[in-house]
């Protein structure tokens, strides 16, 4: 503020003070002083504003990064529980209690709780409906849920006409809802719970209740996060025990073949896969499949493939893991081993990690599945840790074979 005041005073002096009676040199010096003072103050003001913009940008970036980190951590935790939302007793009990709490608060005639994952059809988790429901059309249900998605906060419609064209689970002529209340609990991108309630009478729900329902929903999210975290701790303990067990078994193995057998058993127990492959480098340009389990394709034990062609070769050549949700791109598919492949045998999701020896890739472990998005970043991290143990165990045998 002081710089702006000084700038204003200098501008007034330069405009209104006439030095015509002074000698010429004094007039020139006066003008130079005024011009220099204004230039200096303008530079300082610009510098201060630039510094403020930079700080603001760093703050926004920092908060955005923090939000991203929190969201990604939460997603990883919830991934551990997503596959068994309906069967997880902690999550199930909590959802039912919250459902009853909301029910007693708004007193609807019917209620439904759906869960939707990334690629899954919406699953009915819980419901309260006395009237017999008509068969629910999946297409109509998705269309209805998309309407809820577009609403920020709590959706309330108190005069639905005609109900059968709006709500996909009407009960024919027995029951026709005229009031609707719905909202979502967004776990992460593409994963959410839908809370849906309706009533047979018009103007049943009170819009003044939305703030209370939003608080309940915030509690839903926080509690689900805690439950997911607790499940994550349990999963991590199981995973740690499996790694210790694998390490002990590999240490007692007497040759490469036994190491490979033990490792294969652990991976099959830990992951679902349509195809499981182990390959080792043959030379700088090719690798050979040492183990192949699953679908009957052309890539079996002993198959030699170039490192420059497909996804598996890329993993070895670049010494990096690779996760892709769908190798099938419609008009074409990404080759797995060679560019001459004519089919991907219905495989979609691809996860591969390198076997590392002396800081360079000496092979790769690959899991493939016919289901899109079957494997997650969490799966990649687990497979990488298992493979590290396997790499350390077989290193001595690979060195012996070289010699």
How would you describe what is shown here?
The protein has 403 residues and is α+β, with helices and mostly antiparallel strands. The chain folds into three domains: 2-79; 89-231, GAF domain (Beta-Lactamase); 253-402, GAF domain (Beta-Lactamase, 2-Layer Sandwich), CATH 3.30.450.40. 48% of the residues lie in helices and 19% in strands. It contains eight helices and eleven strands. The chain has helices at 2-16, 24-82, 89-106, 138-149, 210-251, 256-270, 311-318, 377-402, and strands at 110-116, 123-128, 155-157, 179-188, 191-199, 275-281, 286-294, 304-306, 322-324, 349-357, 360-369. The model is unreliable at 50-84 (pLDDT under 50).
CATH class descriptor of the largest domain: Alpha Beta
Q: How large, in whole angstroms, is the Cα Rg?
A: 33 Å
Order of helices and strands: HHHEEHEEEHHEEEHEEEH
Overall mean confidence score, pLDDT: 77
Helix content: 40-55%
Biggest sheet architecture: 6 strands, antiparallel
Query: Strand tally, please?
Result: 11
Strand content: 15-25%
Q: Kindly report the spatial arrangement of strands forming the biggest sheet.
A: 8-7-6-11-10-9
| Count of domains | 3
End-to-end separation in angstroms reads 78 Å
Unreliable runs: 50-84
CATH architecture of the largest domain: 2-Layer Sandwich
CATH topology (fold) name of the largest domain: Beta-Lactamase
């Amino acid at each position: 503020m002081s710089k702006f005041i000084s700038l204003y005073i200098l501008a007034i002096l330069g405009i209104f003070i006439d030095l015509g009676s002074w000698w010429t040199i004094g007039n020139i010096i006066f003008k130079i002083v005024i011009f220099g003072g204004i230039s200096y103050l303008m530079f300082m003001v610009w510098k201060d504003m630039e510094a403020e913009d930079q700080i603001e940008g760093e703050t926004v970036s920092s908060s955005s990064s923090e939000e991203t980190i929190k969201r990604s951590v939460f997603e990883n935790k919830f991934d551990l529980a997503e596959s068994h939302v309906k069967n997880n007793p902690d999550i199930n009990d909590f959802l039912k209690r919250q459902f009853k709490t909301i029910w007693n608060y708004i007193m609807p005639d019917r209620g439904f709780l759906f869960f939707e994952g990334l690629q899954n059809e919406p699953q009915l988790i819980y419901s309260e409906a006395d009237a017999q429901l008509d068969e629910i059309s999946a297409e109509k249900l998705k269309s209805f849920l998309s309407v809820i998605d577009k609403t920020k906060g709590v959706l309330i419609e108190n005069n639905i006409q005609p109900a059968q064209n709006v709500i996909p689970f009407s009960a024919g002529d027995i029951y026709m809802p005229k009031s609707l209340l719905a909202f979502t609990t967004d776990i992460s991108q593409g994963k959410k719970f839908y809370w849906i309630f309706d009533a047979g009478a018009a103007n049943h729900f009170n819009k003044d209740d939305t703030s209370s329902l939003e608080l309940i929903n915030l509690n839903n999210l926080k509690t689900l996060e805690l439950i997911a975290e607790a499940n994550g701790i349990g999963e991590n303990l199981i995973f740690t025990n499996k790694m210790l067990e694998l390490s002990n078994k590999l240490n007692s193995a007497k040759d490469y073949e036994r190491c490979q057998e033990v490792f294969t058993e652990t991976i099959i127990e830990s992951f679902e896969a349509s195809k499981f492959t182990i390959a080792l480098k043959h030379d700088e340009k090719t690798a050979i499949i040492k183990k192949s389990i699953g679908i009957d394709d052309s890539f079996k034990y002993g198959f030699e493939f170039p490192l420059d062609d497909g996804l598996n070769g890329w993993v070895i050549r670049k010494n990096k893991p690779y996760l892709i949700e769908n190798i099938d791109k419609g008009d074409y598919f990404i080759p797995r081993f060679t560019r001459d492949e004519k089919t991907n045998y219905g495989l979609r999701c691809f996860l591969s990690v390198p076997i590392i020896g002396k800081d360079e890739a000496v092979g790769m472990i690959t899991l493939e599945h016919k289901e899109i998005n079957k494997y997650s970043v969490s799966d990649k991290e687990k497979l990488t840790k298992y493979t590290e143990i396997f790499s350390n165990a077989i290193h001595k045998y690979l060195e012996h074979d070289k010699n």
